[in-house]
Amino acid sequence: MWTFCNIHPLDLTWINKGRTFLQGKARSATVSCKSIENNATTCSLSDKASANLNRPPKPKAARPKKQKPSESAGLASHARFKRTPDSSASPSEVHRTSTNTKPTPPAREAHSVGGLKRRASSSAPGSTAGIPEPELPSDHHLLAAARLAALDPDDLVSALQGGRYRSSTTHPPSGTLLRASHHHADTAAGDPIRITPALLLATCKELRRRLLLDRNFRPAHIAQIIELLATRCGDREEGNEAAAVAGDLLLRHRGCSQGLQAAQRSTEQIELARLLPRLIPALVSLEFADKRAWEAIFRVMHSNMDTYTGTEVAALVPALVELDSVIMPDGSSSSSSSSSSGGSITGFGSQQLQRPAMHLRLQVLARDGGATGDATAALLLWLVASSLKQVEVDQVVALTRRALLQGDLSPSGLCRLLRATALLGNRLVESATEAMDLLQRHESSLMALLAQRLADQAAAGRLRTHEFTDAAQSFTRIRYLHPSFVVELAAATAQGLRAGALKRRDVTVALYTCAYFGLQEAAVGDLFAAAAVSLEHRLEADDFPALVLAHLAWSYAIAGGCGQLPQRGRNREVVERFLQKLVAALQSRVGMKGVRPPAEVSGLLRFALQIWSATHPSLAQPVLLEAVGLRQHLHGQREGQLSASAASLVDGGARSDRSGSTAGAGAAARTISNVSPSSNNRSSSGRDGGGSGNGHHGSCTRDVESSSSSIDIKSKKDRSVAAAAAATAASLLEPTFVSELQKDVYRQLRALGYKPLMEERVSCWTVDILFSLRGHRVAVEVDGPTHFTTSRPYHSLGASLARDTSLRKLGLVVVPISFKDYETLSQARRGEYLRTRVELAVKEAETEAL
Predict the structure, then answer these.
(1) Contact criterion met (CB below 8 Å) for 525 and 490
(2) Residue ranges under compositional bias (Polar residues) (predicted)?
């Protein structure tokens, strides 16, 4: 017999609930009620299955708890529910910033005030967050949730925020269930109850009934409860249910519902509007996808936009951008449909950024301030990363300037500003050169000031490891070199390597950045030596992905071509030993016959092998050359195989082999397409592994060699291998682009009496223009903007420096022609300029030969 006392006669909900509960337990119960003198009701529930009450309960399987996200510093309201857009990335994203691929915001990064938490199916291995916490039995949940839901609103919010609730029988709230005699139904009086996510959700469900009649709850109470749901349930299995409960709380509460439905400003609407900068991020974190409810919320938000502070506006923008991933442009939920727009349609959340009220508020924020520097930086990052079709440069520049003027901008905020600038290149013109030119025209000193601030923070030791990594990725994306920052990056990474406190990603990014810019400093050489010591042991113990190995090969090959590697002593021996092990690891991963490496791996590795084939032949192993389609260029191929007549090139005609060429059979023709003047930096095909367009990364690897047709194939296995090789070669066929700048240089050289050849093959390389002079082969390399930094003064990037070193090792006299020097000359002076450069280079070669 279970006895419940002190149940108010007007609240028979608990009796019905008890009946439902027992029926759910497959028990048959009879309920009888009798009145007593104190106007209360005593209920007796006679259980026909009471004989089995002493049977020990069956243990319940613990449901795996999802990993708790770590809280990150940032905006007070939004950051509690989110991971950040500039969070750390996977190895494949480590260098994606250098390939003009738009990073997923935060992190994206993953790195930050950024991406909202997503519900995962399991927690990370080894994490204490993955250990299921002990859950209260379901009957305890029932009673504990009822007790909590009956509390005074302030006491309820306080208990939920504290995470524990201590029950008391001294002064019970009206309508609550007190102690039950059965030991399954309650805990000991006064024992604290831990409020788990499941109990929080059950309490909110009970609270929905109370909200229909209880006017003691204010909209502020509802906002606090929804924030708690987002924080504790948003990334768990209960996330979808929590989103529905949050919507019910918002719509069932009288003040909130009236505020959303009011056509004009009312007391309820004004009170609700003040809470939206907190409510909207919480609802987005819960992935609340009711579009009609969102439309009502946004109507209230826009009508009260002028009342929000700068910090509140800064909290709204990231949430609105994240809403794009929750609700599709057609109004459907992201969980039930997928977007096929490919980012071409402005999302539902980003559409709110285009509304006049929000647009005007952002302009005021940029002009007059009102938010902290970090909040402004986060706002700018999310604005640039949104699905808006257009982002105004004036607005970006104004917000960047405003953030820099704030005295409270942290190193993390500086990194966000730099990341926003890097993303801007993709958003506007998909070119770092043109994006930086636009910024230069709007604010000439803006980037220099931002880079100097970061360098100062690095020199003062205030940058954390992931901030170094984030800033380095952004600098490479926009090709902006600040020598002091690179030196500090190299020194900090080398120190971290010796302490054994760095992740592989941080090391890889630092090596990549130093090689990318080709800066010759002692700290850079020290970094490559320290990395060789650390990575040598990791190569033996860890299973490195092929992409990471390819990035390491690219970085060390460029560093060797730029003279960054140690040239003497023990450090040189350490680096040499590491390179041999790196090549062995590459052979085991990408050197298998008939297996074609992925395009990104192949591109990075090809350029490394091109350099090694000239500067360090022992590293250019045949199996690797064959895997990336370079082996045929080293064996039996003669110059001129892919040369076309100079006249057809200049006239823009299709390219064909020279009739007098002695090239091997099966050499395929290459087509040359003109490019726009704005893209005249693509003086040769291919990429440099850093996405900056530096020529010769893979410029000699695009031909189809059909030499397999002459092979005597005797078995099916041989035929399959040959077919795979042919497929590899076919996949490398791409048009070669010759810029107008290169064509003009060719015309001038021909007018001077030289006999130039365009796009001439030399070993693994394709030379822009090649001719002979007094017994010397002269290679003229025409370098457009992407061969240089966007910072002033211009510096050649590491890939271009390594290319020139490799061509000199092959016996060529290299004459690099820079666009910045050549294009400033008049047509009458260009010929004389070229003659002087060629004669000077040949004279130096003759002097060295003596």
Answers:
(1) no
(2) 86-102
Residue holding tokens 């609550």? 176
Q: Are strands 736-738 and 672-674 parallel, antiparallel or unpaired?
A: parallel
pLDDT of 31-89, one tens digit each? Answer: 333 333 333 333 333 333 333 333 344 443 443 433 333 333 333 344 445 434 444 44
What are the tokens at 777?
């082969």
Model confidence, pTM = 0.72
Is the distance from CB of 565 to CB of 612 less than 8 angstroms?
no
Query: What residue spans define the domains of the chain?
Result: 2-52, 97-111+309-335+342-478, 135-175+188-286, 646-849
Picking from 52, 55, 43, the residue whose alpha carbon sits closest to that of residue 181 is 43
Alpha carbons 207 and 588: distance in angstroms, whole number: 61
Would you say 27 and 48 are in contact if contact means Cβ atoms under 8 Å apart?
yes
Element (H, E) at 425: helix 411-428
Residues in the chain: 850
Which residues have CB under 8 Å from 130's CB, separation 6+? 64, 65, 67, 122, 123, 124
CA distances from 93 to 369, 383, 470, 472, 686 (A): 34, 21, 11, 13, 20
pLDDT of residue 463: 95
SS3 45: strand
Mean pLDDT confidence for 614-642: 74
pLDDT band at 440 (very low <50, low <70, confident <90, very high): confident
CA–CA gap between residue 727 and residue 540 (Å, rounded):
33
DSSP 618-669: GGS-HHHHHHTT-HHHHSS--TTTT---HHHHHTTPPP---TT--PPTTBPP
For residue 737, give both structure tokens: 């682009």
- The mean pLDDT value of the chain amounts to 74
- Walk across the sheet containing 776-783 and list its strands: 757-762, 765-773, 776-783, 813-818
Strand 765-773 versus strand 757-762 pairing type? antiparallel
Q: CATH code for 646-849?
A: 3.40.960.10
| Structure tokens that stand for 94 in this block | 């480590």
Cα 275 to Cα 114, 224, 306, 583, 687: the distances in Å are 21, 10, 14, 59, 50
Could you report the per-residue pLDDT of 147-203, keeping only the tens digit for each? 898 899 999 999 999 988 876 544 444 444 433 333 333 444 456 788 889 899 999
Quick one: tokens of 195? 């409020």
